[in-house]
């Protein structure tokens, strides 16, 4: 800590001996001179700690207020979902993890089939990989989103717009990639067909008189496969979705963030108070060294108890833990303050000791 080396025990004893030769300080006289400087330095650092905490407190208080608002909003949404769920909701057919497992299998099948279909890009492997990944990922993600949104009992305008957008994106990506494949094949010279070619790839390299029909046939077969994959993903997402449980998780998450904001504020105050107590302890040690050496070398018989001791004053905000903003009613999950035992005991000790000192005065 700064200034400690200028106000240490060795200097305190030196000043104590020097002041003793002048009979200073007088019994009952307010601390001045060297002790006054020590008190001033200590109080300056106490004030610095208070200002540091006040800056943090403004930010943490905003977090608490935001957390309260968010928790209340999620609680309100939960109540609305519960009412709608009782009226027209349906329970999930199978657990959510089974749906995600099916999505993984569906995406693996998409990648396998699409890689076979886009083998026309064989001279450009990166293009083949990008087309395969784009179609497979888009179909699965859009199907998942559409199925879960359809299950929501209280769909708003935004939800309906996003549902339409998901369908449009899936169709546009599938149609666009298939069309790009057809144009790419049309621009290539007709290669020799080998016996190892896939059935899907053979349709794109037939003689000139049937190329248009084959490309059209491939396009509709490809779109039919994508539509089947999309429908399967959407149905499993719909059957496994539980909007009530999802809203409960959102409410719990908002509640946890609110709790963490309270805890962070309490810990910030605890750290500031501990630093302040450390400075007061340093001041007391320096004073004890000064008084002990001063009274030891005095000839007027003054005892340590006769001298008035310094006591750096704590800023008001560090005397006791300032109450944070509170909600009018606690959420269904219970109180939001979840301090660990050590932090709670520390704050109670500091606050109780400060109040008892103030009462004693």
Write down the secondary-structure element order: HHHHHHHHHH
The rounded Rg comes to: 38 Å
Shape: elongated
Strand content: under 5%
Helical region count?
A: 10
Task: Describe what you observe in this structure.
The protein contains ten helices and no strands. It is mainly alpha-helical and 361 residues long. α3 (96-117) packs antiparallel against α7. The relative contact order is 0.16. Residues 1-6, 191-209, 331-344 and 354-361 have low confidence and may be disordered.
Provide a compact summary of the structure.
The chain has 361 residues and is an all-alpha fold. It is 72% helix and 0% strand. Helix 2 (33-88) runs antiparallel to helix 8 (243-296), helix 3 (96-117) runs antiparallel to helix 7 and helix 5 (157-186) packs antiparallel against helix 7 (211-240).
List the defining traits of the structure above.
361 residues; mainly alpha; 10 helices; disordered N terminus; disordered C terminus
What are the SSEs and their pairings?
Elements: H1 9-20, H2 33-88, H3 96-117, H4 125-151, H5 157-186, H6 199-202, H7 211-240, H8 243-296, H9 316-319, H10 341-360
């Amino acid at each position: 800590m700064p200034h400690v080396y200028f106000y240490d025990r060795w200097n305190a004893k030196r000043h104590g001996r020097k002041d003793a030769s002048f009979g200073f300080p007088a019994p009952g006289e307010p601390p001045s001179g060297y002790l006054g400087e020590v008190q001033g330095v200590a109080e300056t650092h106490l004030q610095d700690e208070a200002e540091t905490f006040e800056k943090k407190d403004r930010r943490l208080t905003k977090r608490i207020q935001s957390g309260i608002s968010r928790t209340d909003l999620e609680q309100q949404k939960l109540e609305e979902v519960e009412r709608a769920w009782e009226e027209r909701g349906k329970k999930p057919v199978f657990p959510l993890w089974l749906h995600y497992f099916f999505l993984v299998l569906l995406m693996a099948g998409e990648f396998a089939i699409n890689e076979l279909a886009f083998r026309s890009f064989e001279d450009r492997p990166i293009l083949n990989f990008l087309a395969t990944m784009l179609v497979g990922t888009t179909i699965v993600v859009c199907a998942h989103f559409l199925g879960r949104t359809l299950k929501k009992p209280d769909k708003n305008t935004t939800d309906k717009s996003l549902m339409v957008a998901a369908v449009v994106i899936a169709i546009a990506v599938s149609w666009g990639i298939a069309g790009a494949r057809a144009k790419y094949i049309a621009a290539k010279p007709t290669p020799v067909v080998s016996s190892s070619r896939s059935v899907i790839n053979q349709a794109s390299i037939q003689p000139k008189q049937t190329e248009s029909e084959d490309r059209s046939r491939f396009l509709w077969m490809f779109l039919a496969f994508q539509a089947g994959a999309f429908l399967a993903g959407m149905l499993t997402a719909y059957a496994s979705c539980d909007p009530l449980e999802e809203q409960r998780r959102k409410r719990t998450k908002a509640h946890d963030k609110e709790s963490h904001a309270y805890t962070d504020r309490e810990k910030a105050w605890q750290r500031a108070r501990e630093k302040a107590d450390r400075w007061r302890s340093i001041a007391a040690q320096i004073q004890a060294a000064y008084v002990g050496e001063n009274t030891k070398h005095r000839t007027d018989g003054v005892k340590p108890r006769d001298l008035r001791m310094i006591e750096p004053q704590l800023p008001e905000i560090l005397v006791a833990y300032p109450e944070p903003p509170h909600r009018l009613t606690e959420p269904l999950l219970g109180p939001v303050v979840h301090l660990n035992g050590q932090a709670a005991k520390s704050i109670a000790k500091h606050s109780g000791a400060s109040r008892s000192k103030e009462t004693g005065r």
